[in-house]
Amino acid sequence: MASLKEVRNRIVSVNSTQQITKAMKMVAAAKLRRAQDSILQMRPYAQKLGEMLLTVSSGSESAADSPLKAVRPVEKVLVIVVTSDRGLCGAFNTNVIKATIQLIESKYAAQAAKGNVEIFAIGKKGAETLVRRGFTVNTAYTDLFGRLSFVNVKSAAEEIMKDFSEGRYDAVDIVYNEFKNVATQIIHTDPYLPIVAENKSTKSKKTEVNYIFEPAEEEILAELIPKSLKIQLYRAVLESNASEQGARMTAMDKATENAQELLKDLRLVYNRTRQAAITKEILEIVGGAEALKN
Q1: CA distance from start to end of the chain
Q2: Per the similarity annotation, which family is this (predicted)?
Q3: How much is the CA Rg of the chain, to the nearest whole Å?
């Protein structure tokens, strides 16, 4: 049985840990509110812009000439992996990394065997883990979530679009967590480039919209296609940010509960140890008194 001092030190240590996890839960809750507001405001705009782009580009000759719609034989692949910069958020990062590896092994196994699959990491944890596992990480955007804004994400999207347009990659996919609620995050693996127009069967089921272009169709599409891709990446980062805070809040809540349970067990052990020590001292005193009488 552990000594009273050891048990007392463990109680102090666990109590300090509980205070830290409780504080981290409160910080995550505050950040979650802001992150949740941001993504809920972004979703309708991003969805409508994406629908408009697909509808317009599917019947446009100008959009067909865009290098971002160029469908080539898939030889070189880029996978955008959105994780967090910090840990202590449960299985949040692990799930994204597992989905990334599964995507590469199932969809791009032939390209990976030739060493033609590269990673574009947004978030320190994903970059570090994938490098350790032997994947090629050509770019890592770290500390992005500390200064999260459309301007910072836009530069990442522009870099990806430039590489695709120049033929450095033939396909780009993105893996990220979609925020559903505090306790639930949904892994998404979506194609990012090239832009695939709606097929005719899908388009016929929807109400066809005829757009009037002003000043000119070519100018509007030249601006709309890159902007839509930037918004799509920004939305994925916002989804991941909200998911991270929700996952961290849940993890810290569980850690606080576990610390409370551990404290109960330690206090019980402490009291039993203390009682055993007192009983032992009483027995020693009684035994000494009896020895003196004899």
Answers
A1: 34
A2: Belongs to the ATPase gamma chain family.
A3: 28
* Total residues belonging to the chain: 294
3-state per-residue secondary structure call for 221-282: HHHHHHHHHHHHHHHHHHHHHHHHHHHHHHHHHHHHHHHHHHHHHHHHHHHHHHHHHHHHHH
pLDDT value, residue 147: 85
Give the single-character DSSP code of 173. Answer: E
The pLDDT of residue 54 is 77
pLDDT tens track for 126-155: 999 999 999 999 988 988 888 889 998 999
Task: Extract the tokens encoding 155.
Answer: 């530069």
Q: Give the other-Cβ count within 10 Å of 39's Cβ.
A: 19
The pair of three-digit structure tokens given for residue 156, joined into one six-digit string: 């990442």
Whether residue 205 is predicted with pLDDT greater than 60 in this model: the reply is no
Residue 243 annotated in active site: no
Q: Cα separation of 214 and 216, whole Å? A: 5
CA distance 143 to 146: 6
Do 173 and 79 meet the contact criterion of CB atoms below 8 Å apart? Answer: yes
pTM for this predicted structure = 0.86
- Is the bond preceding residue 191 a cis peptide, omega within 30 degrees? no
Tokens 């972004």 sit on residue = 42
Q: Which residue has the tokens 């695939």?
A: 196
Beta strands, E only, the chain: 77-82, 117-122, 136-141, 171-181, 184-193
Residues 46, 53, 80, 89: which is the catalytic one?
A: 89
Higher-pLDDT residue of 38 and 221 is: 38
Q: Which positions ≥6 away from 233 have C-beta within 8 Å?
A: 80, 153, 156, 157, 160, 174, 192
